[in-house]
Specification:
Length: 175
């Protein structure tokens, strides 16, 4: 924890230090820390990335290391956007540019967040209906996103079925 605080303090008032820290290989290390399970480390690493990203010279490097999905998608999911996307798709019907963009974002969320995948699985019958409809009648891009979401959902089910606790993961009581 102390090194993260020191990096942030060192970089805070110096553009030159921000660039040096980023060039020293700190960005991928910070992104790795953000994906761990320790909340205080996640907060410190995110703060350090925020400080480094305040330097325009570091912005592209941070994005190039894949920071955007790592930082943004969990936030979007935690604000309840999965259910909002599903409701949007339900209320606005089959095809429109907005629905296509919603499916694309939902596919990104489901592909990179267990929480999003779980929320989608809770409404599986509705979601599967929308995805099959998109595959049958959608644009090529829409079909691609729908197929990708179905694939992620199927892989998740397969992984749960392979585990020894598969009855528990589907809410089935043991005999």
């Amino acid at each position: 924890m102390k090194p993260l605080k020191r990096y942030s303090a060192l970089a805070f008032h110096s553009e030159r230090n921000k660039i040096r820290i980023a060039n020293s290989g700190a960005i991928p290390v910070l992104l790795e820390i953000i994906q761990c399970q320790n909340e205080s480390l996640i907060d410190l690493a995110a703060a350090a990335l925020l400080v480094l990203s305040s330097c325009s010279a570091n912005k592209l490097a941070i994005a190039a290391f894949g920071a955007i999905p790592i930082l943004i998608i969990p936030s979007i999911v935690s604000f309840g956007m999965v259910k909002a996307m599903l409701q949007l798709m339900y209320e606005f019907g089959k095809q429109s540019e907005m629905i296509e963009k919603a499916r694309a974002l939902l596919e990104k969320m489901v592909s990179s967040s267990e929480i999003a995948l779980k929320e989608v699985a809770e409404t599986a019958s509705l979601v599967i209906h929308f995805l099959v409809e998109a595959i049958e009648e959608g644009t090529p891009l829409c079909k691609e996103h729908a197929a990708a979401m179905l694939l992620v959902m199927c892989q998740s089910c397969r992984d749960r079925c392979k585990s020894r606790d598969w009855p528990k993961s589907f809410g089935v009581a043991e005999r």
